[in-house]
């Protein structure tokens, strides 16, 4: 998504004038993040949480807990990473296009997939749940962004960024390095704001009007997007050292050892929010974990995987398409295998092994449809 997996090559290259060398390691990170989106929604469908188009109760309590733990760890950082990458490529795109063309391009690349999914594809995915009665009332009730809530959020952030740039003078690039003190201050600030929001909007609270399934992570999403724009101007992603990666790994591991047990010790629900001490520990954990994992991954991929062959180039080019179509693939497989009496871990693994390559394989023909490549 450059809107997540990959909304558009223009947001994947650098700033004003000639584009700088392509950051292949970021393309590789997008492949990883997009794959996690598919696996995340496979896990949701078998976790016992009624949050997906096809849901199947787990065959054991242990299986349900295991899938929920995967979802918790995944949710704590991977969408924030998408917002960070999207924010990183936003200033360069604006520099090249200017206010009007930038917004028009975003409306095409983000607005059209969002509208098609919300008004056509999301209602179709919910047809199996039709309870009878008025088809029109059912259709109106099923209009929604579904997993494309991210695209909606990114469109709003792009409009905000363009408005701020329109009203302020452009600042020249800065070479100020990323310091441990700045990272620590960011983590603490993010944790406190997240804790405060969860006093009124605990983890799991939905906002039906805009379909945000994880509104309690809004501070992370917005701050990571802003951080991405700052990282672009200061060249941070091109200059991260190996020590930064190890520090990020230590931060993620240390917070998991210290803060996560403290958060969970208060009970199964105390960590969700409501101003409890457990929710403060949880906010400190997921803020630290998110920042640490992203720093570690960016550094590792920059040093070890800053290149692509034909396969990874294909996967990268089709990442956003996978993000848009994966709900159909995962849901169709769920219904197709509904009669298979396997234990939940085996069944979820089977769906994951089939769904992930199927999504990327199907993305190619979808993008070759007339007019689709201009959008996806």
Automatic annotation (TrEMBL):
Taxonomic lineage: Bacteria, Bacillati, Actinomycetota, Actinomycetes, Streptosporangiales
Originating species: [Actinomadura] parvosata subsp. kistnae
GO MF annotations, alphabetized: acyltransferase activity, transferring groups other than amino-acyl groups
Entry keyword set: Membrane, Transmembrane, Transmembrane helix
TM annotation in the entry: 31-53, 65-89, 110-130, 136-157, 178-197, 217-234, 246-268, 280-301, 322-342, 348-366
Keyword Membrane (UniProt): yes
Domain Acyltransferase: 25-363
Identification of the protein by name: Acyltransferase 3 domain-containing protein
